[in-house]
Design a protein that fits this description.
302 residues, alpha+beta, Phosphorylase Kinase, domain 1, Transferase(Phosphotransferase), domain 1, 2 domains, two-stranded antiparallel sheet, 10 helices, 41% helix, 20% strand, binds adenosine-5'-triphosphate, transmembrane helix, serine/threonine-protein kinase
Length: 302
């Protein structure tokens, strides 16, 4: 039996908004999760990501959250392009259209470019969190699957289903990233909640031994932060970040802005060699500047 999404998301098929009347042509599926299904679509020459929700209420709440954090003049502005309903097999299905982010998962990025990139990625992710926190919200379900990394460590967050107003109960979470799972605090939307998940995200991506899958199976009384400290001792990049990670895990940062300042100071103090990062554009810029310099000499003195 063909499901509504097989029909709606077949490459080449058109999705027409019932209320706004905009038409999108499906290129291909990008992914599916517990809340919805996402496709790469085209409108004219522009490409977008279109997400159709399984549950109307959850879907609407995701749109509202996205709208709320994009009201301020920040990088989320204009992320949400359209929100409408489509009719598939006689049924109304809600969808929203957002910016299409080209990139890879955090683990793929690190695997390809090296663990040192975590310094840049971490700094960019902290900036994103700060923007959300300044809007009066927390991201809630921060995890590697909810971010896309592109170019030179640029970070984009996707999946806004967990975004929660500060002070409210966290509405969507993933076990190992949740401080409640580790008995390290309440499931309340505070900046420190996201910062705990941020620390787990970094540790998980640096852990060669993939211990986090095992943690899910442990009994609550056996989930100790000592397991995480072991990763900090074994991995040189995690060891550099240990003072930051420990503070984030223990809820010692009140705000993400405070955490960002600490991050920068820590890495400046440790003299993290950004030059060790493989930055091809530096080489390109260097070659370009040599060429321009040569051309100028030729034009003026030739
Ligand atoms: N804006 C975007 N640009 C590019 N790809 C995207 C975008 N939004 C989502 N995706 C892709 O679609 C997949 C599913 O999206 P999303 O995580 O929002 O679904 P979900 O149902 O909320 O998932 P979960 O079960 O993790 O809650 C993502 O893993 C990602 O690969």
């Amino acid at each position: 039996m063909t499901t509504w999404y097989d029909e709606a998301f077949r490459p080449g098929s058109e999705i027409k908004g019932k209320w706004n009347g905009r038409v999108y042509v499906v290129e291909r599926l990008l992914g599916a999760g517990s809340n919805g299904i996402v496709a790469l679509v085209r409108r004219g020459s522009a490409r977008f990501a279109l997400k159709a929700g399984y549950e109307t209420v959850d879907h609407q709440s995701e749109i509202n959250s996205l709208l709320a954090i994009s009201l301020k003049d920040n990088s989320f502005k204009n992320f949400l392009i359209d929100a409408d309903d489509m009719i598939v097999q006689g049924k109304g299905i809600s969808f929203y259209v957002m910016r299409y982010i080209e990139g890879v998962t955090l683990s793929d990025f690190i695997h390809k470019r090296g663990q040192d990139w975590i310094y840049v990625i971490g700094s960019n992710l902290l900036r994103k969190l700060t923007e959300i926190h300044k809007s009066g919200y927390v991201f809630g379900d921060l995890k590697a699957e909810n971010m896309i990394v592109s170019n030179y460590g640029d970070v984009d967050l996707i999946d806004f289903g967990g975004v929660t107003s500060k002070g409210r109960a966290i509405k969507q979470l993933t076990e190992v990233y949740d401080r409640g799972f580790w008995s390290m605090g309440e499931r309340v939307a505070e900046e420190s909640y996201d910062l705990f998940s941020f620390a787990i995200l970094l540790l998980k991506s640096l852990d060669h031994r993939k211990r986090f899958t095992g943690f899910i199976k442990t009994l609550p009384q056996n989930r100790e932060l000592d397991h995480l400290t072991a990763i900090m001792k074994e991995n040189p990049v995690a060891a550099q970040l240990a003072p930051f990670l420990n503070k984030a895990l223990h809820g010692e940062f009140r705000t993400s802005e405070e955490a960002s300042i600490y991050w920068r100071k820590l890495l400046a103090g440790k003299k993290v060699a950004y030059s060790t990062l493989k930055l091809p554009w530096l080489k390109i810029c260097f070659a370009a500047s040599l060429f321009i310099c040569g051309a100028t000499i030729y034009v003026f003195w030739g």
